[in-house]
Amino acid sequence: MFGFRKKPETTLERVLPVHIAVKMDGNRRWAKQHHVPRQAGHVAGSEAFKTIARYCNKIGVQYLTVYAFSSENWKRSEDEVEGLMSLLRKNLRDVLTIFRDENIRTRFIGDRTRLDPQLRELMAETERVSADRTGLRLNIAINYGGRPELVDAARAIAQEVRDGTLSPDKITEDVFAAHLSTAGQPDPDLVIMPGAEKRISNFLLWQSAYAEYWFSDVLWPDFTPDVLEQAITDFNGRKRRFGGS
Ligand code: IPE
Ligand code: IPE
Ligand code: MG
Question: Which residues partner with 20 through β-bridges?
């Protein structure tokens, strides 16, 4: 009765998080470290993004959400914002070609209304050409913020109540989640925060309620599949309780 409990067999097989989210942070510090212009740091960061997205697709991750430009990033200098926007345009053109044979389905989350028409067109094109792909589902967050996303959801719900199509007592967590930009997707299991900062920065506030966080001092341009594997290994050692026992 009180004998030693046999330890459960450890299996060599690791569990892949279904949904990984990454705040791609630290580009400017990387540029400083390497004595190169700030924009070169952003370019190096976009290379890391392409490598990591393809790697996730290769190992069978189902969902990857990357934070590329926040709703607060407009506060940066005009010069930096323009550099980031032109890099996003370039990257989307790359994504259209490089990901052509990758079976990656790309979608965007965030408010598009403030983005220039050319970028918006590229986003629509990227979503259109990849809509039927069955591999990794990639969400790229551009002009995304968790708070604006929640406010938009509240506004849409209020409108439905006013229109008489939704009654207030029918507003559940599921209904709320269905009004977010990630509607229909599972919540992230693992949120990776490179760049040596320990803050959420308005990323997936609702969706990450029970995510496992993994912080790293590695600056985003230095982030490699090996570092991602470290995060996945660490994730495998976590005991997720979701408030239970
Ligand atoms: C992430 O790197 C890229 C964006 C936020 C667009 P940063 O530009 O924030 O670089 P650091 O964090 O200041 O080093
Ligand atoms: C968050 O990083 C946005 C992206 C990584 C795209 P920031 O660098 O803008 O966040 P803070 O200002 O350090 O919190
Ligand atoms: Mg930063």
Answer: 64, 190
Task: Tell me, using a 6 A CB cutoff, whether residue 105 lines ligand 2.
Answer: no
**pLDDT (tens digit, 9 = 90+) per residue, 221-231?**
999 999 999 99
Q: Partners of 106 in the beta sheet?
A: 138
Judge contact between 48 and 24, C-beta under 8 A: yes
Whether residue 11 has pLDDT greater than 60: no
CB of 95 shorter than 6 A to ligand 2? no
Clarify whether 226 is annotated catalytic: no
Long-range contacts formed by 38-43: CB under 8 A, 24+ apart = 38/80, 38/83, 39/80, 39/83, 39/87, 41/221, 42/83, 42/84, 42/87, 43/87
For residue 148, the one-letter residue type is P
Average pLDDT, the chain: 95
**Cβ neighbours of residue 66 closer than 8 Å, sequence gap 6 or more:** 21, 22, 24, 49, 52, 53, 138, 139, 140, 141
Right CATH for 19-145+187-236 from 3.40.50.300, 1.10.10.10, 3.40.630.10, 3.40.1180.10 = 3.40.1180.10
The span from the CA of 102 to the CA of 99, in Å, is: 5
